[in-house]
Amino acid sequence: MHDGAQEAELLRKAGRGDEAAFLVLYERHRTPVFRFTCRLLGKAELAEDVTQECFLAVLRRPEAYEPGRASLRTYLCAIARHLALKQLKKLGQETMMDDPPENPSGGAGMNPLRRVIDEEAAAAVRAAVATLPPLQREVVVLFEYEEMSLAETAAICDIDVGTVKSRLHRARARLRRTLAPLLRGGPAAVPGARGETGP
Amino acid sequence: MTLDDRETMRDEELHGLLRRWEAPAVPDRLDERVMAAYRRQTGAGEAVWRRFLTSSIRVPVPVALAVMLFLLITAALALRPQPNLPTAEAPEGSGAVRSAQRATPVVTGTSLAGFQPVTEVTVSVVQEGTP
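ok -> structure tokens follow
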């Protein structure tokens, strides 16, 4: 975890044209921001646009970041989320799907059969996450993939922790149903999850 | 992530399956794009003269129109033909004298080209009152 005050100072310097300060911040946060938007949008090209716009937007008003309220990573993800949802709205879609990258885990030397199974599982997971409503998808991506806390997820999505929990619960139930053939426990493993729908 | 969060929301089997979908790595071209956009936005790493030549300012349309109008009026006033004003040397006499001065062309130079002395001079005296 990075010191918020130090990151705020770097942000102010970067806003004044200090390229070295910007590079430090960009290299520190580009991967989580890109990963998050990529999983949310389902399309790498759009995720690139959103990531770029996210960093530039932060620099336009560096003083808007208050280190006492959230970490810079949380702040950047909140901006990226806003931009990503705007993109989805503009395109009139809830999600888009790229062709899955070939051999994403670079499994050279892996058993070919095992690799095929893994790739199929990854594609199934990807498709299942993409079919979630955007408001459920974002909490799944933040909590399950970006390993953010409930409080951080709530701050990014601008909702309370209780709502995060309920959305996460519904999303998991839905994912369990969709991915049942790949789960040993089957769709009923989430307590009280059956028959729940909505965002 | 706090331990409480994970304990409360634990679903290891689903979590393990979800983790099999890996997001693509950040492409190199994104780094180049972002750095170029950053330099464009802040002018970082750009020569001062280049920044000066490519800089721009935003002016509200009413202000721009007012400035243009002012410049047009100033230019029109400057190019308008000036009326003849009395000079400082002019006598403070009658208006007729000043009109005569204005009507008479001012000789600004003389030339002796083509001048020849007369061959015969006849003097005649004319008395006052003789037609």
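The longest helix of chain A spans residues 19-41.
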